[in-house]
Amino acid sequence: FSMEMECKSVITNPSGGMQMQGPGLYELQGFAWSGNGTVKAVDITTDGGRTWRTADLEGPVLDKCLTRFRYRWNWDGGPAKIASRAVDNTGYVQPTVAELAENRRIAGFVQHHNGIFPRAINTNGVVSNAFSKYYYSHRVSACLFFHHRVCCSFPTRCISRSSHHFIEHHGPRP
Q: Which of 30, 56, 61, 84 lies deepest, with the highest CB count within 10 Å?
């Protein structure tokens, strides 16, 4: 078993379960990486992907290593959907979840899940995982696709303990 580690980024601060302390200046922080070389850029959206701005990379930026990024953002207190996308030195751009699902379905195999991972911030400043809403409604996950083909295609009970898999294939828990 082997796979190509395509580039990915994720915002780690703020993260799900955190709460912003009112409108004002915040520093979005996270990590990016690529198994194909170096991270050349990380873009940040604070409006659900309508616009993207370049984050600052923190050195050293090394081949096939984690790269830290930062972006200063003035939150106005309104609802926001934040996310990051990485670009590596091969020109590869981290895909959206929809793009990833479409590409993996066509390719017929699954690599790691490197889709853009959004977070929602409500007017109270509560940060939540915005990916799950898309994930459950569209049922597109490379890891679930793989797990389903390996585990659930057999006439035995699925032994997965992951709640997202259970809901996806077996309905809500009682």
A: 84
Q: Kindly state the tokens that stand for 20.
A: 């912003």
Rounded to whole angstroms, the Cα distance separating 75 from 19 reads 13
User: How many Å apart are CA 80 and CA 83, to the nearest integer?
Assistant: 10
- C-alpha 80/C-alpha 102 separation (Å) is 26
* 83, 44 Cβ separation under 8 angstroms: yes
Residue 71 is encoded by which pair of tokens?
């972006």
Token readout for 89 is 């030195």
* Chain position carrying tokens 């915005």: 130
> How confident is the model over 83-99, as a mean pLDDT?
92
Helices 163-170, 131-138: inter-axial angle, 10-degree rounding: 30
8-13 β-sheet, strand order:
8-13, 24-33, 67-75, 56-58
pLDDT (tens digit per residue) in 38-63? 999 999 999 999 999 999 999 999 99
Confidence (pLDDT) at 100:
76
User: 128-153: per-residue pLDDT in tens?
Assistant: 988 654 443 333 333 344 333 333 33
Task: Judge whether 49 and 58 are in contact, CB under 8 Å.
Answer: no
Name beta bridge partners: 27.
Answer: 72
DSSP secondary structure code for residue 149 in this structure: I
pTM score: 0.72
